[in-house]
Write a structure and sequence with these properties.
Blueprint (H helix, E strand, L loop, with lengths): L4 H4 L3 E2 L15 E4 L2 E4 L1 E2 L5 H8 L4 E5 L1 H10 L9 E5 L2 E6 L2 E5 L6 H14 L4 E4 L3 H6 L2 H18 L5 E5 L16 H17 L6 E3 L1 H5 L15
Parallel strand pairs: 1-4, 5-8, 5-9, 9-10, 10-11
Antiparallel strand pairs: 2-3, 6-7, 7-8
Length: 233
């Protein structure tokens, strides 16, 4: 197959954050056999580069097991008995150094969740709150139900956060295509794709919210997911 001119050009770095400028995304590309070739250049961060980035920042991750694995990957290695723990409302924050994690699976009471997260961010003096939730609600319920809860939570959370805490929304990562060697799950990813477009459209009205398009980075990479539906761990 002839290689088109656009594939010969030196690839620009993939846009991990959603921005208004035109930028190549990780989910724009083509398949070469079982390998996805994006139109942009993947950037894999070495551990020392990640440590340097977080050295002067306090980050609170909040979400389900996908987010917990990111906390585990980015926080300083430490046994459980060296973690510090604090309770905010009905939620316990685990912290290792300047990186914390607060479990948020599905949200049934947006105002309460917003209050708890704002209190945790304030108490821990976190500069960034990286939030994602709704993965299982999307699997088992409707997109409309998730988006309604998502919007209500964001609207309640933003005014509750201190001015020096920046909210980062992680779009929902793609659901593992391979639950085992014989079964594939495509229906859930179609729902996640629809939800992630609605999330991006809604957040354009809130320019102070940063967006990490996790779905855009994971949706073309089904073979990187493990059998426990995660892309990390």
């Amino acid at each position: 197959v002839p290689i088109r001119r656009e594939w010969r050009r030196k690839a620009e770095r993939c846009a991990g954050f959603y921005t208004k400028r035109e930028a190549p995304r990780a989910d724009e590309g083509r398949w070469v056999g079982r390998e996805w070739k994006p139109r942009c250049a993947w950037r894999i961060y070495a551990r020392n580069a990640t440590d340097a980035c977080l050295r002067t920042r306090r980050v609170l991750f909040a979400g389900d097991s996908h987010t917990r694995l990111m906390f585990d990957a980015l926080s300083p290695p430490a046994p459980d008995d060296e973690e510090t723990r604090s309770v905010h409302g009905g939620r316990t924050v685990r912290a290792r150094g300047d990186v914390g994690y607060c479990p948020v699976d599905d949200v049934d009471a947006p105002a309460t969740v917003a209050t708890d997260l704002a209190d945790a961010a304030r108490a821990g003096r976190y500069e960034f709150l990286v939030l994602n939730f709704g993965h299982w609600r999307l699997r088992d319920n409707t997109v409309e139900s998730h988006i309604s809860t998502f919007k209500e939570t964001i609207r309640a959370l933003l005014p509750a956060l201190d001015f020096n805490t920046t909210l980062v929304w992680r779009t929902t990562p793609a659901y593992s295509y391979r639950r085992d060697d014989s079964e594939a799950e495509y229906r859930t990813n179609a729902k996640i794709w629809k939800a992630h477009l609605a999330q991006l459209a809604f957040l354009r009205a809130f320019p102070d919210v940063l967006v990490h398009d996790t779905h855009g980075l994971t949706s073309p990479r089904p073979f990187d997911a493990n059998r426990k539906h995660h892309y990390l761990g």
